[in-house]
Amino acid sequence: MSEDKQEHAIEVHLDRLLEERGMTLAELADKVGVTHVNLSILKNGRARAVRFTTLTRLCEVLECQPGDLLSHRKN
pTM of the prediction? Predict the structure, then answer.
């Protein structure tokens, strides 16, 4: 399997964090400074990379740590 097609084992917990904070994906995208589409790709686990600047803004806006946002699923 090529690296581009390889499945990853990282889970993104944006749904839970948004629900806990009473925030929509569109609101978060606006506050973080990324497009709604790009944030949706991340939320649905289809992103292949995340910039540290984006991760930083997500953590600042959601008042969380990277580990609250991402976890490794054991296969």
Answer: 0.88
Please write down the HEC assignment for all residues of 27-66: HHHHHHCCCHHHHHHHHCCCCCCCCHHHHHHHHHHHCCCH
- Using the 8-state DSSP alphabet, how is residue 72 labeled? E
Q: What is d(CA 64, CA 28) in angstroms, rounded to the nearest whole number?
A: 13
Backbone angles phi, psi at 12, to 5 degrees: -110, 130
Cα distance between residue 59 and residue 31, in whole Å: 11
* Residues shown for the chain: 75
Weakly modelled stretches of the chain, pLDDT under 50: 1-2
Determine which helix (DSSP H) or strand (DSSP E) holds 57, and give its type and residue range.
Answer: helix 52-62
* Model confidence pLDDT, tens digit, residues 39-50: 999 999 999 999
Give just the sign of the alpha carbon dihedral 50, 56, 61, 66.
positive
